[in-house]
Automatic annotation (TrEMBL):
Keyword Protein transport: yes
Coiled-coil stretches noted in the UniProt entry, renumbered to this chain: 207-267
Residues annotated as domain CHMP7 winged helix: 115-183
Name of the coding gene: Chmp7
Compartmental location: Cytoplasm; Nucleus envelope
Organismal lineage: Eukaryota, Metazoa, Chordata, Craniata, Vertebrata
GO biological process, one term: late endosome to vacuole transport via multivesicular body sorting pathway
Annotated stretches, region: Disordered: 352-371
Main location: cytoplasm
Protein name per the record: Charged multivesicular body protein 7
GO CC term, one of those recorded: ESCRT III complex
Amino acid sequence: EVNSTEWDSKMAFWVGLVLARGRRRGAVRTCLRELQNGFERRGSVPLGLGTVLRELLRRGKLQRESDFMASVDSSWISWGVGVFILKPLKWTLSSVLGDSKIPEEEEVLIYVELLQEKAEEVYRLYQNSALSSHPVVALSELQSLCASVCPDERTFYLLLLQLQKEKRVTILEQNGEKIVKFARGLHAKVSPMNDVDIGVYQLMQSEQLLSQKVESLSQEAEKCKEDARSACRAGKKQLALRCLKSKRRTERRIEELHSKLDAVQGILDRIYASQTDQMVFNAYQAGVGALKLSMKDVTVERAENLVDQIQELCDTQDEVAQTLAGVGINGLEMDTEELEKELDSLLQDSTKEPAELPPVPQKVLNPPISDAELEAELERLTVCDGDLAQKASSASSKPETALGLNL
């Protein structure tokens, strides 16, 4: 508080350290004394841990155990935890007005996020176990199942409180025994426990007791058989007969218990089948409701009208495409009839026989010229060029004479 410039950095460091320590230990509960002992170095403890815990309480990362338990609307807290429960009014006022007091050294605090994660883990353990065949289970069986997640009984009760706060379990005490009912489905809310749930739970308990009794009688019958063998070896015939009679009586009791056990199991199978049928029925009902909502504004007449509109639009598009395709270059329209007539005339001309052509001449048009002929032709051209030059000179002198005469 004195060094305000480093308040944020120091608070961020210690907040992260406290939360990381709780997650590393896996314990949902802590207190100021336990943190001081954990962070002790060379005989010294951090003096600002109380302020850090107060900040964590303000942020909602930690919560006082008493406040948490008072926030859960439950009538079975007192038998499980055995701690002082704050009055709901006091808890409401402290929640609304805020609590800026530094927690006491022995006051129990709860890691809120870690508690939620472990409660989810308990729910997954139940869903993946054989106990999930029915939503109602004995509290003792559930505690044995969650022994790996809950290190002590107090943590187990806190996890159940968190699940009850999330409306995923409900607790009931029946004939001195506490039973837990789970919600069916990951995102479902638990329904109140009814007579059907209690009856099914009693049937399950009867099945378990009958199975244990059958197993015990089977061991007893096997023991009578071994005693009869030992008596025969020892020559005690009367004792061996009594052991055999006891064995047969035990076997008859086992058969009776087997018949009762089969009846109980048959009833349970029918109950499970009816629950499955109910789930399927609810799913069908939800599907019908969703289908009605999705088909609310859809009728056969509207569908036919829509199809007619689509067909009209397609026809219009085809006509537009044909019109655009009939336009020639530079906007000049072509007469298709004239083009067809011209094409017919071309086809008729191509079908006519070709005209008769004159025969190819056999005489060579350009016979080869010899070198002597070429030289004679060259001399002749030279002579002709000389004559032409003389004539040109004479012609040029005549005008001069004429000019002189005229002068």
